[in-house]
Amino acid sequence: KQWYQRRVRGGRNITAVRITSDVGASTNKPLIWLDGGIHAREWISPATVMFIIDSLLGEQEQDKSQQMEVLLAKFQFIIVPCINPDGYEYSHTHDRMWRKTRAPAGCHGGRRMWYGGCFKKTCMGVDPNRNWSADWGNTGVSSDPCS
Q1: What is the mean pLDDT of the chain?
Q2: Model pLDDT, residue 127
Q3: Using an 8 Å Cβ cutoff, are 74 and 20 in contact?
Q4: Contact (CB, 8 A) for 110 and 65
Q5: Among the ranges given (12-21, 72-81, 104-113, 117-126), the one the predictor scored with the smallest mean pLDDT
Q6: Mean of the pLDDT values across residues 83-95?
Q7: 97 Cβ partners below 8 Å, 6+ apart?
Q8: Average pLDDT score over residue span 40-48
Q9: With 128 labelled, which of 8, 34, 55, 139 sits at a CA distance of 20 to 30 A?
Q10: Could you give the dihedral angle defined by the CA atoms of residues 74, 134, 117 and 128, in that order, rounded to the nearest 10 degrees?
Q11: Which of 120, 85, 87 shows the shortest CA–CA distance to 105?
């Protein structure tokens, strides 16, 4: 396994682990990406992803270790237990139903600087699973950056 870390806006780390049978020589294997905690209030998600990590490493469900070895020989797994650590922490300390990130969003009064930035941000939080490039902003979305 290999560990990777990236610091986010609130100073917390997003940690990813790469698991495969041979970390040094697995770059040509198909990659399976798993992440948890994209919505801050869904507390079970990071725990579920941690259970999957334990299972792949043989810590859980030891009776399935041969099946895990087959998977690790064929694939490399990149797993991020909590992809929204600032929102996750905020949902534990301030607002149990908080769903978004803690990045500022929306421009006060729609006023923008000449380069496109805001004079003043009006709200906190971006819905992280609505920021993928595939079919972004089509159905089920609001044009209000603070919604």
Answers
A1: 82
A2: 82
A3: no
A4: no
A5: 104-113
A6: 95
A7: 41, 91
A8: 96
A9: 55
A10: -60
A11: 120
Q: Are 98 and 123 in contact (CB under 8 A)?
A: no
**Span 113-136, mean pLDDT?**
71
- Tokens for 8, please give them: 């986010």
| Cβ count near 147 (within 10 Å) | 12
Measured CA angle at 12 (ends 134, 144), to 5 deg: 40
State yes or no: pLDDT of 114 exceeds 80: no
Smallest Cα–Cα separation from 16: which of 24, 25, 29, 7?
A: 7
DSSP structure string for 41-61: T-THHHHHHHHHHHHHTTSS-
Whose CA is closest to 146, among 129, 121, 128?
121
- Compute CA 76 distance to the chain's CA centroid, rounded to the nearest angstrom: 18
Q: Residue 36, exposed/middle/buried by CB under 10 A (0-12, 13-18, 19+)?
A: buried
User: Could you give the C-alpha distances from 72 to 66, 76, 90, in angstroms and in order?
Assistant: 10, 6, 35
